[in-house]
Specification:
single chain, alpha/beta, 42% helix, 7-stranded mixed beta sheet, 13 strands, 3-stranded antiparallel beta sheet, disordered C terminus, elongated, 501 residues
Amino acid sequence: MGINELWKLVSPSTEGQTLTAFALEGLKGHVQDEGGLSMMTVSVDASAWLYAVCKLQAFRLGHAQSGENPELRTLMYKLVALASAPVHTHFIFDGEDHPPIKRGKHELLHIFGFTWATARGEAEADLAFLSKAGKISAVLMEDSDALLFGAEKVLRLTDNEDGTFIVDAYCAEALSNDPKMPLTTARLLLWAMLRGGDYNPGGLTGCGSQVSCALLAGDLSDSLMQVMTLAAPAQLPSMLGTWRDRLRTVLVDGTLGRKYPTLAASIPADFPSIDTMHLYLNPVTTWSGEASSSLLPKLDPTQPDLTRLTAFCEARLGRMRKKIHKYFRNKLWSAACMRALCQLQTNDGSTLPKPTFNVDKRKDPKGGVPVYCVTLYAPSFVNATNDGIQADDDLSPEESESWVPSHSKVTIPARIMELTSPQDVIDYSDQHATSVGPSSGDPPPDWHPCPSAQYAAVADMLWPEVGDMSSEVRDPELSGGSGLKVCTDEEGWEVIDLTVD
């Protein structure tokens, strides 16, 4: 829940931006740098996010129509959307009192290359601590507590129609410099005391949002913060009593534009609660007390593990072989290619070779993220998927040896391409300018991109000039020492028999 009505009080620094566009602003480094590109890291209140994703989404779809394990299925779709943006996501679960997480969800996070941890107390406190320490770029959550806990930037996500995420970003620096009313930590604390939150659900009884906003405009918030940060523990009760008397005076002297004698008379003698304010100002984190803040987690992203994800889909989601290949090719290959370009390591610490592709065209959608459309040749993705499929003795020889496309059309953000494959971008730009000319927006129907040297060998195999599409092709480097047979399937795709002789 967070602090009551705080989202109505604050204004986002950026609004309606896609997560990809937001993340590209934080992209640093170059592919030649040690460790590849440095993606923006966002951290998530895992318990709240998983509940929202798996419970509410599955309820909307209807369990009866959602197939096997609808919660895990919905979670996988959302993780694919996160993996498709150039961000690394670190999930933090609440501490000992958090509700048990259904088996399989931690496994999925690891399979997608994300990291996770369990907080000592509340996840929001750890999120804010990592934000202040500079370990993460933003906190992704629905609860507003993180702003009062000290998070530098908080993201609220909404689902886009195309399956991606839309971001509203709230920056603490921008809020504290708001010309209308700077929302400092002191003002956020006073609002929490007046309106209530997780630690004081009722707030100050009878004090509505209009009165609370009027009280924020004065210096009551600053004086309350001075008492909490400067007074010795023994002095706190008396100094808060003085502050409380001043609050009553403001409510009855007409300073707020009208008088509120009933509210002033009803203020309890223990308002505001010292314990509640300490919980907000000094929340328990994993690094509180004896724990050293030097032991902050290492948040290194890794590649999605297609082999393990395939086995997971088959065992837990009841997906069949053909559907797994088709879903991965249509939904996951773009993400896997982008992350391979960024040279993210695999779970075993190795780095995948640069994907083989050919740049087809560039798109610059109005108000969107510029992308390059490429034809990706990824037999390694197909092989990894096949490795995760369990042997089935009941399948016929034709079914067990069925072919799948090893290439697909994918889109990669232009910024990623420019940083990781500058020569491919230059070659495409030169060829496009020569073939199309500066005045044309799209290439003519008979125009074909000039294949790169890396792609040429693959193109010769996938689209041979001869009419016989069942020709044998033997290239030890591309096929791993085995012959590859190319033909056309029922959907019109050129497909490769990956069966090892």
